[in-house]
Amino acid sequence: xxxxxxxDVLKLGHRGDVVKVADGYGRNYLLPEKLAxxxxxxxxxxxxxxKASAVRKSAKEKVDAEALATQLSAVELVFERKVGxxxxxxxxxxxxxxxxxxxAKGYTVDRRKIALDDPLKSLGxxxxxxxxxxxxxxxxxxxxxxxxxxxxxxxxxxxxx
Length: 161
What we know:
By secondary structure, this protein is α+β, with helices and mostly antiparallel strands.
């Protein structure tokens, strides 16, 4: 089945490309999600208009992404998590945690755009890439600290006795 992509699809192609996909993939995912349209003769005639529109839209998105990237480069996120032996976290810091914290600071970033290969499971300072556009990547400084509640609570309990 040949389809014309209406949006960029990871590992498949960019907006306006005519690609050949499996029938089920096109019929069950791309078409219902409005990521593509069927490549008929009438639709192929519209491709040039779509490509011109896609170029304009991509240029505008790139400018917006570059502006957001400059703002995100100054952002520092701090997470406090419970720590076990050898500074290993009981939980982890995931891309969803980072996206939620960015949203709390006023930046709307989809968690799927945060390029975190594995969740952060140890203390330290990390520079997490955020892919805002296919040509624009910002880096957010993420610091993971251990919470000190257990250490301060223990002496207070001893002093109370």
